[in-house]
Amino acid sequence: MATSLVRQTKLLSIVTSQLSSAACFRNIxxxxxxxxxxxxxxxxxxxxxxxxxxxxxxPHHIGHRKGWLSQHTSNLQGEDGAAxxxxxxxFIRRFMYGTFHGCLADEIVIKRRGNLLVICAVMIQxxxxxxxxxxxxxxxxxxxxxxxxxxxxxxxTVEEKVVYKYL
Amino acid sequence: MAACVWSVRSxxxxxxxxxxxxxxxxxxxxxxxxxxxxxxxxxAPAVSARHLKQLGVTSLRSLSQVSLSEEPDAxxxxxxxxxxxxxxxxxxxxxxFASLAARELGLSLERAFExxxxxxxxxLLKSVHIFKKHRVQYETRTHHRTIEISRVTxxxxxxxxxYIQRNLPEGVAMEVTKVTxxxxxxTQSCFSITxxxxxxxxxxxxxxxxxxxxxxxxRANWSRAVSEQHTVSxxxxxxxxxxxxxxxxxxxxxxxxxxxxxxxxxxFLYIIK
Lengths: 167, 273
What we know:
The complex is a heterodimer of chains A (167) and B (273). With 167 residues, chain A is an alpha/beta fold. In chain A, 37% of the residues lie in helices and 17% in strands. In chain A, the strands form 2 sheets. In chain A, strands 2-3-4-5 form a 4-stranded mixed beta sheet, covered by helices on one side. Chain A has a two-stranded antiparallel ribbon with strand order 1-6. In chain A, a hairpin with a 2-residue loop joins β3 and β4. Chain B has 273 residues and is of the alpha+beta class. Chain B contains 9 helices and 5 strands, in the order ααααβαβββαβααα. In chain B, strands 1, 2, 3, 4 and 5 form a 5-stranded antiparallel beta sheet that branches. The longest helix of chain B has 21 residues. The chains are: A alpha/beta (167), B alpha+beta (273). Chains A and B meet through β3 of A and β4 of B.
């Protein structure tokens, strides 16, 4: 972002200097740096970066090629509580990332059915199963005490991270 | 797929239980009104232990806690279930599930349709600082689906709704609207149809100009002389008549009685405020 702005200002200064010499004092905006969207996108690079299905598709594909990572009713028409759910989701994602450090294969899916909070995760088989069971129990207990609602974790393990393509 | 089969089986068992136990009051009313629906009466349904285990019922004692109360069951003219969600395919499958459940339980599914989706659009600045001309647009789509069930009693409505709500998918919200008819067997303050069960009906061709017409203002035909002669007798709510006028509300307490052309005796209305 900074480099593109620097480039833009350099270009502008060149253009303005040329124009001012021609006794014209209008500024021209000629770069497209601000027009590109950068949200939740991994930029195309050399071709050696592995990328999962979730990371490969951009946010405008949600609902068409991607599903929803967090499923609750507060964003529907006539429903409220969206801000609280977002804060809870952020905390849960950071908590899971830290508790199962290096084991997460992909993003966590959070589902809310009534009072019940279901966390669905895909893990790499990095730890022993007994250690996984302990961490699942620890997470469920701690989060249910914290959020005062039943928390369930549905976990699936995978040998290694599933790569969709290389960017 | 297995889950779908299981749910169908459990709905069948639920329906057996419902028709056997839960609707005695309504059953009596419907019998009186001459409904064509077959009712098993008060005998216990033949439910196997395997079925019960599937439903999570450990002993028959918990089933027998369904009590038959003397007070009349609430009657609903229309039960409207409206579901909202972000994903249209999820609502499609839920509509299939809910209509299947209604069909298996023997409820009359009036219609299932899709109201128009609602889109909320936000146009925000793309950059944190300046660059007012460059914006980004987001939209949130809410799809709806409505399932309408007509002429259902309070107990069966409760059972159906509980079953539906337990199986609501995540990210789907539900709104239930119930349009009530008066509860059977009571003259309530809102409105009721009172007539003797053995009276026959005569079509009333003329509209009589009575002062009490100002109170109700319906299109019903009735005669003041008739209403004075016949007294209020045992009330039974005829579900047919409740259906014919869904516009009745609590304030205007006029009820239109359906008249049968070949009958010769009178039907009448009671206007109660």
